[in-house]
Fold this protein.
Amino acid sequence: MKTRHKRLAIAAGALVVLGAATALVLNAFNSNLVFFYSPTQVAAKEAPAGRTFRLGGLVEAGTVKRDGVRVSFMVTDTVKTIPVQFEGILPDLFKEGKGVVAQGQLKDGVFEAKEVLAKHDENYMPPEAAEALKRAGENKGQMAETLVMEQKR
């Protein structure tokens, strides 16, 4: 084999190894990605089925039910509401009417949370949750405007 052919074979082998390494890294990255969804997006079936994602919004007042370490509550974005179940110890700042982000999977219409995060002070809300609530409020306002316009006709 000539030196030119050896260099081409080494370059081709290096490209194959580099391609395999890139594929492995991208696969690991993709399987560890966790996206944020609002209750409206989950109700519209935009959230991935069978994959872990984050659900964020407000804990609906009067919905927190405790049974030992098993807790169920509803998360809302003022438009849609999703039931959440969590087994474990909730953060100290977890309260009804306050912001929450839960990470887990949707199973049979109930969000099974593996982790629950509460806001850390009265001024903070995760940017994704704030944006989702803002959009939900805008959609609610647009719906109200449309209803008023239709009633005037």
The chain has a mean pLDDT of 81. The first strand starts at residue 36 and ends at 37. The helical segments are 3-32, 39-43, 127-152. The first helix runs from residue 3 to 32.
